[in-house]
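Let us practice reading a record.
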Amino acid sequence: MIDIRQTQHYANYLKSLGWIVERIDKTNYFVKKLPLLGSVLKIQRPDEIRFKVIAKLAKKYRAFQIIVEPKSDNAAKLLIRNGYKLSKNPYLPTKTLHLDLTKTLKFEKETRRSIRIGDRTVIRKYSTSTEIKTFREAWKKSVNFKRYVPGSTQLINLRKYFPNSYSLFLASHNVSGSIIGGVIFTRTSHGVAYYWQAFTNKEGRSSLSQYSLLHQGILWAKKQGCKIFDFEGIFDPRFPNKSWLGFTHFKKSFGGTEVLYPSCYTKSKFSLI
């Protein structure tokens, strides 16, 4: 299964954010230049780790750090044998849920009830640049200042480089038409959809609109022919973040199989080959 970060869509999106992308043998290598220091070289969930290519790119871009996030424990062991060290702070979620979309969707009674209540809110798509700016403004108002909210340009570029049926922006509304919750879904051409990012305000949570939004995204993914719905992260006791416990309970209410990934591995310029 090809990870979304190894697709051409994601490569184009990262370029729009100022990253240099080298796509070699269908693997994305992301380079971020930093003044005076050189650059950071990042490879996320590749199907194969090509150390010679990494060394060549590290030299070309004067990388002071290489970051690799492997897909399997065997790949992690290979990194260790090649001088990489385990990082305490993974960049990508190390634990997630995969929902099998090839089977009939069967939710628990309480989840079905929550979806029915959430369906009372009005849900609509947001696609144009102007609409996405409105979407982003509502997101900003819905969360406290400690929560990171992507900028309008970043969200517009996400929609641009995951065009048409490759992304979906949905928002729920109260009776007065105000946005009370929103969600972004993305997908690959390899049959995997992602619960990319989401938000709700107090009213959105009390109306259970998040259940309806997620359900709509799952139905969208199934309609697009996706075989797997990736919830893109749940609480992992190996790297405990208590703020993840609430939405982990929410995501698990939809079912799915737990999937574990290794953490992040790094190599500094002092140990580059």
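A brief commentary: The radius of gyration is 20 Å.
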